Amino acid sequence: MSPESSLNPNFETLRLRLSSLRAERGLTYEKLSELSGVSRSTLIAMETATPRSRRPGRPASRGSLESWWRVAHALNVPPSELFKALDG
User: Which parts of the sequence belong to the HTH cro/C1-type domain (predicted)?
Assistant: First the structure.
């Protein structure tokens, strides 16, 4: 991996990985929220890159490290495996 690419993590691949894992396990946003302790609106924002707020100019959520960690454990995936998608 070049130094330049390491400065630009591939969040789209991470989002697709989350979507795939959630679908494979047959989990709704509501159920994953219950299992992870991450709010439904945050999960949707993490997976779809949509802003959690309707305020104009508000950036899309990438989710906090804690949120991704909680989601990984709720999906029974080591966080390191989930985060490998960032290099994709």
Answer: 18-82
**83 burial via Cβ count (<10 Å: 0-12, 13-18, 19+):** middle
- What are the CA-CA distances from residue 8 to residues 4, 23, 84, 86 (Å)? 7, 27, 13, 9
Dihedral angle computed from the Cα positions of residues 41, 43, 46 and 49, in that order, rounded to the nearest 10 degrees: -40
pLDDT band at 85 (very low <50, low <70, confident <90, very high): confident
Would residue 78 count as lying in a domain?
A: yes
Range of the domain at 81: 9-87
Distance linking the first and last C-alpha atoms of the chain: 10
pLDDT reported for residue 11:
85
Residue whose entry in the numeric block shows the structure tokens 């899309």: 60
Instruction: Give the CATH number of the domain where residue 46 resides.
Output: 1.10.260.40
Predicted model pTM: 0.79
User: Based on the structure, what is the number of domains in the chain?
Assistant: 1
